[in-house]
Structures are given as structure tokens and as C-alpha cells.
Design goal:
Blueprint: H1 2-24, H2 26-39, E1 45-51, E2 57-63, E3 79-80, H3 88-95, H4 103-108, E4 113-115, H5 122-125, E5 141-143, H6 145-148, H7 156-168, H8 172-188, E6 198-199
Length: 203
């Protein structure tokens, strides 16, 4: 019963925090949208399919930080720190994690949470072992345990183990701890890109 109450509380916090943040930041979001349109050709949002709770797919929203059709150029879905496909405004948005803000829309829709495992791509989930599928028991999050423990510097296997540890040890207090620690990770730029300056695909 106690866990159920905590889960309901988490969902309520997610909804009201996402709604209030989007309202408060709406002037900033409009400015960012304008800068993206002025900086390069293409849509404001980068929309792609991610896998959520129970293995269900959903459309994830981010501010576009790369040139249109970037996945078919250069490193494909892998991204380098000095990637030529990243736009001028995109570099700034990635550096400060502002490209993730539109995922608050996914939180409002109940597809994501403020805290949880980062949402994976369909082809990544297809490679999951039975143990790794445990990661799909909860909603994916904008930030998470693996994010504050190394982010992209960790291998996918390491990240998934940390995500499953989070799921097995979840509490509202743990979520609070992760949320409090996240700004420090963003400010430090720790793990923004993977080892060698490249964020690798699932391996």
C-alpha cells in the first residue's frame, strides 16, 4: 500500500512539475524555437520513436540540435563532441541540457517521468537480454541514476545495470536525490559525450 501511495505521488509530482515548468519557461522556449529556425533549415523539434514502460513505443520530443537528416550523415545516430552536424544553437542547447526540455511534454502525456532510465531506441531494446528487459518496468525519465553516475561515459551495459538497481531500490527520496544532483552534472559537463568524445550506439 505504501509503495502504491508513493507511485501515485510520483505521478502527481511529474504532472504538476512538468506543467508548471513549461508555463514558467514558455518565453524561453519560444525564444529557443525562434533561434533554431533562424540558425538552420528544418523543424524546431526533433521527434523520434523511443521505447517506454512495458516496451511500448512513443514519440519523444527534443529541440533539434543537428542539421536536418543528420541520422543519414556522418556517424549516423552516434554523435561526436565536435560533430559538424551539430548546429550553432544546437551546441549551446546540448551543453546546458536545454534540448531535453520538450520531453516535459512526454511527462505531461504520461509517457515519461522526471526521473527514470533514459528512453532507448527500438533497435537497442531488441538486443536486450531478459535481465536488461527489467529496465522497461518503469517509465523512462528525463534524468536518472545512470545519468548522475557517469552518463555517456558509461557503457550501455553499465548504464542498464544502474537503471535496474534504481528500479529495484526506487523511492521518492531516491528520486529527490537524483533531481538535486542533476544540475551539478549538467554544469560540470560530465559525461555529455562518451569516451573519446563520441556517444556510442548500443553495443
Amino acid at each position: 500500500m505504501e509503495k502504491l501511495i508513493q507511485e501515485i505521488t510520483k505521478s502527481s509530482i511529474d504532472f504538476f512539475a512538468a506543467l508548471s515548468t513549461l508555463i514558467i519557461l514558455s518565453p524561453l522556449l519560444c525564444l529557443v524555437a525562434l533561434l533554431i529556425k533562424l540558425d538552420s533549415h528544418g523543424p524546431v523539434f526533433f521527434k523520434h520513436i523511443r521505447i517506454g514502460k512495458g516496451g511500448k513505443g512513443f514519440v519523444s520530443y527534443k529541440f533539434r540540435t543537428m542539421v536536418e537528416g543528420a541520422a543519414k550523415k556522418g556517424l549516423g545516430i552516434e554523435v561526436a563532441e565536435n560533430d559538424e552536424r551539430i548546429t550553432g544553437i544546437g551546441k549551446f542547447l546540448r551543453r546546458w541540457g536545454l534540448d531535453e526540455i520538450p520531453q516535459l511534454i512526454n511527462v505531461l502525456k504520461g509517457e515519461m517521468s522526471l526521473v527514470g532510465p533514459r528512453p532507448a531506441l527500438p533497435h537497442q531494446v531488441e538486443k536486450y537480454s531478459e535481465f536488461e528487459k527489467e529496465r522497461l518496468k518503469v517509465k523512462p525519465g528525463i534524468t536518472g541514476w545512470a545519468q548522475i553516475k557517469g552518463r555517456n561515459l558509461l557503457s550501455w551495459k553499465e548504464r542498464i545495470k544502474l537503471d535496474i538497481w534504481y528500479i529495484e531500490n526506487w523511492s521518492l527520496w531516491l528520486d529527490f536525490k537524483i533531481l538535486v544532483m542533476t544540475p551539478r552534472i549538467i554544469l560540470s559537463k560530465e559525461g555529455l559525450y562518451g569516451k573519446g568524445g563520441i556517444t556510442r550506439d548500443y553495443a
